[in-house]
Amino acid sequence: MYRSINGTWTVVEAKSSDITGRSQFTYFPNIEYRFFLSYNGYDDKIFYLNPIIYESYTIRLDKIISIVTDLDYFGVEVQFYPKTFYDNQTNNFTWIIQSPSGLLTSYNLSLSYPNGTYYASGSNANGGEFATTFNLSGTNYNDYVNMTYCYKSSISSLSNCFSYQYRIIGSMVEGSFLSNKDNTYGLSLLSRMLFAVIVVFIIAGIISFFSNGIVGGLTGLLLWGFFVGIGFLPLWSVALSLVLGVIFLLWRTD
Fold first, then answer.
1. Range with the lowest mean pLDDT among 65-74, 186-195, 238-247?
2. Which positions ≥6 away from 121 have C-beta within 8 Å?
3. What is the DSSP pairing of strand 45-49 with strand 85-86?
4. Which of 62, 189, 216, 221 could bridge to 204 as Cys pair (CB 3.0-4.6 Å)?
């Protein structure tokens, strides 16, 4: 569990769950927190609560899905996880190649990311596993984690190579809307809601004046969605406005 301290996300508690999958944390009300969950066999998950409003939450993780074996793989199965990478934190990456029939002759993995690379190779007929840990910090929106792996099998003289590219979550774009992601600028929830109401009222009002109420209403809904999408407002705080806006549009278009 992270909390923003002097503008920096800082770990304040770290726990393993009990046998029921639950963990208990101590928190202060009306403060934004970031949570990072990790479990073997599942994709890592990160989410924000601003503020924490319920006594308990049930968070479901997504199982890591193996690449389906097809003709290109010649009886070889490859797994790698996670497929999501985050800026300003440590990222753990694992790559596994398997051939139950012992068909592999060689294989290699190459990773490249901002300010770093990783390379590993092996020749075990049944496959192997590579794992690495790397830190990402201060990345830009056009930065990626690039992965390429190749292997040869005893039933083919060709080298099979596959490449993937993953965007880094949390990367900033100076001067763009994405640079506002998860940034509350130190404002309380009430102040942020008041600011959003003024912006929506002014912009949607101007568009309604020069066009019509339907276009203005749709603009208002898009603005509310934008504030939620960048993490400036929690969804629950604008849910009523979104519902009323949809009802209004349906009524006007009926």
1. 65-74
2. 106, 107, 108, 109
3. unpaired
4. 216
At residue 76, the pLDDT reads 83
Burial 196-214 (b: 16+ CB within 10 A, else e): beeebeeebeebbeeeeee
Strand order in the sheet with 45-49: 8-11, 2-5, 33-37, 45-49
Closest to 105 in 3D by CA, of 149, 66, 159, 68:
159
Strand pairing of 116-122 and 156-169? unpaired
Tokens representing residue 201 in the block: 């009222």
Name the pairing type of β-strands 45-49 and 8-11. unpaired
pLDDT tens, residue by residue, 85-102:
888 888 999 998 888 788
Tell me if the pTM is above 0.90: no
Give the angle subtended at the CA of 68 by the CAs of 144 and 124, to the nearest 5°.
Answer: 80
- 179 pLDDT tier (thresholds 50, 70, 90): low
Task: Please return the burial class of 247, using the count of CB atoms within 10 Å of its CB with bins 0-12, 13-18 and 19+.
Answer: exposed
Record the tokens describing residue 103, joined without a space.
């068909």
* CATH superfamily placement of domain 71-169: Immunoglobulins (2.60.40.10)
Q: Beta-strand (E) ranges in the chain?
A: 2-5, 8-11, 33-37, 45-49, 77-81, 85-86, 89-98, 104-113, 116-122, 127-136, 144-153, 156-169
Domain boundaries, the chain: 2-49, 71-169, 184-253
